[in-house]
Write a structure and sequence with these properties.
Elements: E1 3-5, H1 11-18, H2 22-28, E2 30-34, H3 36-45, E3 51-57, E4 72-74, H4 76-82, E5 91-96, E6 109-113, H5 119-131, E7 136-139, H6 149-155, E8 164-166, H7 169-178, E9 183-186, E10 193-194, E11 204-208, H8 217-222, E12 225-228, H9 240-250
Parallel strand pairs: 1-4, 3-4, 6-7, 6-11, 7-8, 9-11, 9-12, 10-12
Antiparallel strand pairs: 2-5, 3-5
C-alpha cells in the first residue's frame, strides 16, 4: 500500500532527513539514496529485504518504479528538502546497512583505504576496484563514511557490486597476512620500487593513503613491499583516485 505524506512535520519524513547525517545513519543502521540510476542499481543488486522504503515525489514521471511498488509519495517541496543534489529526480530509497562486515573467505585482491577523506575520491576508488574485479574494499579509521551521499553517487552503484567494509586496517592486514596475501603500500621511502618493475600477483592487497599525508607510517611497516608511480612530468603528486586506477589496472584480478 502506498502512503502519501504531505507535511514536513511527519515523523517518518523527519527521520529520512536525519539520514543526511552520519551519526543518525549509524544509529538507525539505514541510509538514503536518490536518483534513478542509483535506485535502479540497488534494485538490481540488493535483496528485497534490504529496502526499508521506496519514495517518489508527486511530480515523478519516470518509468523506473511502478506506483504499486512505491511505499511513499511525498510533495515536490518535501522532495526538494530530501534531495542532496542540484538536479532532484524525485526518486529515493532508504536502505538497511549490511549486517556482515567480514572479509570474503576466498578473496585474493583487496583495496585498503587509509584515512582518505574526500567523498568523491573514495567513491571513485570503490568504483575502480569494482572495474578491476577486486574482491573487497576496506576503509580504515579516519576515512569518510561510505554512506555519505557524495560517496554513494561517485560509486555509480559499485558499492553494491562488491563488499565495502569499514574496519581497523591493522586488524585487516593481520587477517590478510594470515591468508598469505602480499601487502603493497604506496609511499616514497628508500625501500619503495616502481610498480612497473613488479610482476602481476595472483593475490595482493594495496594500501592507498590520505590525500596529503599518504599511507600512515604504522601501516607501511606492515607492508611486504612499498611501491611508487614514476612521474616524469612536473606535477608533484597524483590525485589518490587516479593513482588507485593506475595501480589496480596493473594488479588486476583476472
Amino acid at each position: 500500500m502506498t502512503n502519501r505524506i504531505t507535511s514536513v512535520q511527519n515523523a517518518q519524513f523527519k527521520q529520512w532527513r536525519k539520514l543526511h547525517q552520519a551519526k543518525y545513519r549509524k544509529r538507525l543502521q539505514t541510509y538514503l539514496i536518490e536518483g534513478e540510476h542509483l535506485v535502479e542499481e540497488a534494485l538490481k543488486h540488493l535483496p528485497e529485504a534490504a529496502f526499508e522504503a521506496l519514495i517518489i515525489s508527486e511530480n515523478y514521471r519516470g518509468e523506473l518504479i511502478a506506483e504499486d511498488k512505491v511505499d511513499y509519495i511525498i510533495t515536490q517541496s518535501m522532495s526538494d528538502q530530501l534531495s542532496q543534489t542540484p538536479a532532484n529526480q524525485g526518486v529515493f530509497a532508504v536502505l538497511k546497512m549490511p549486517l556482515s562486515d567480514s572479509l570474503p573467505q576466498d578473496g585474493t585482491h583487496y583495496l585498503l583505504i587509509d584515512n582518505v577523506q574526500d567523498p568523491g575520491n573514495v567513491g571513485t576508488m570503490i568504483r575502480t576496484a569494482d572495474a578491476f574485479n577486486y574482491d573487497a574494499v576496506i576503509l580504515g579509521e579516519g576515512s569518510v563514511d561510505i554512506y555519505n551521499d557524495k560517496v554513494l553517487r561517485a560509486t555509480q552503484g559499485s558499492i553494491w557490486h562488491l563488499p565495502v567494509l569499514t574496519q581497523n586496517l591493522r586488524d585487516s592486514i593481520k587477517i590478510l597476512k594470515h591468508k598469505n596475501i602480499p601487502i603493497l603500500a604506496t609511499t616514497l621511502n628508500e625501500q619503495a620500487v616502481s610498480y612497473q618493475s613488479l610482476d602481476s600477483f595472483n593475490a595482493c592487497a594495496i594500501i592507498m593513503g590520505n590525500e596529503g599525508q599518504g599511507v600512515s607510517s604504522e601501516l607501511i611497516k606492515f607492508a611486504d613491499q612499498s611501491v611508487y608511480i614514476p612521474m616524469p612530468g612536473q606535477s608533484e603528486s597524483l590525485n589518490v583516485a587516479v593513482a588507485t586506477g593506475i595501480l589496480l589496472s596493473k594488479f588486476v584480478n583476472n
